[in-house]
UniProtKB/TrEMBL annotation:
Name this polypeptide is given: DUF1211 domain-containing protein
Family: Belongs to the TMEM175 family.
Organism listed in the record: Novilysobacter ciconiae
Catalysis performed (reactions): K(+)(in) = K(+)(out)
One Gene Ontology cellular component annotation held by this UniProt entry: membrane
Length: 161
């Protein structure tokens, strides 16, 4: 059983990786749906997309730091900050696409008031604050937001089907 005891210290790193991989998959799926619904991609939407990609590119760093420090408060908060800024970048990307397509477009109608997106941002803000008080509650909120988005955005999927 030496193999098992050797791997035990890596469990937090692995669990952090799984959560971050789930987030990358969620963004990948929803990004695909957005672009599938778009009729035109402008220069502004390309820059907004690059902005989103920047925050997504920080996932491995934040994941490694959080798991490597066994879920200490600061790395959990920074991880949440990266999740928060990726969500804000995604919201900007969506708004830029809607501005180019129009509010009556497939994307505009599907997104609507974006209650789910706004709730995600609020939960990230709450989780970042909780990281310094109840770190595991922050992780639970990060997982909850991931679960909210796990299925590709049906608002868009139903309109492009």
């Amino acid at each position: 059983m030496m193999f098992s005891s050797d791997l035990r210290p890596l469990v937090p790193v692995f669990l952090s990786y799984v959560l971050s991989f789930t987030y990358v998959g969620i963004y990948w799926n929803n990004h695909h749906h957005l672009l599938q619904a778009a009729r035109h991609v402008s220069g502004a939407s390309l820059w907004a997309n690059l902005h989103l990609l920047f925050w997504l590119s920080l996932f491995p760093f934040a994941t490694s730091w959080m798991g490597g420090n066994h879920y200490a408060a600061m790395p959990i908060a920074i991880y949440g900050g990266v999740l928060l800024l990726a969500a804000v970048a995604y919201a900007i990307f969506v708004r830029v696409l809607i501005a180019g397509e129009g509010k009556d477009s497939v994307i505009g109608q599907a997104i609507g008031k974006d209650t789910k997106g706004k709730l995600s941002i609020a939960l990230y803000l709450l989780a970042i604050g909780l990281a310094f008080v109840i770190p595991w509650a922050s992780l639970a909120l990060y997982a909850l937001v991931a679960l909210m988005w796990l299925v590709p955005d049906r608002r868009i999927e139903s309109r492009i089907a």
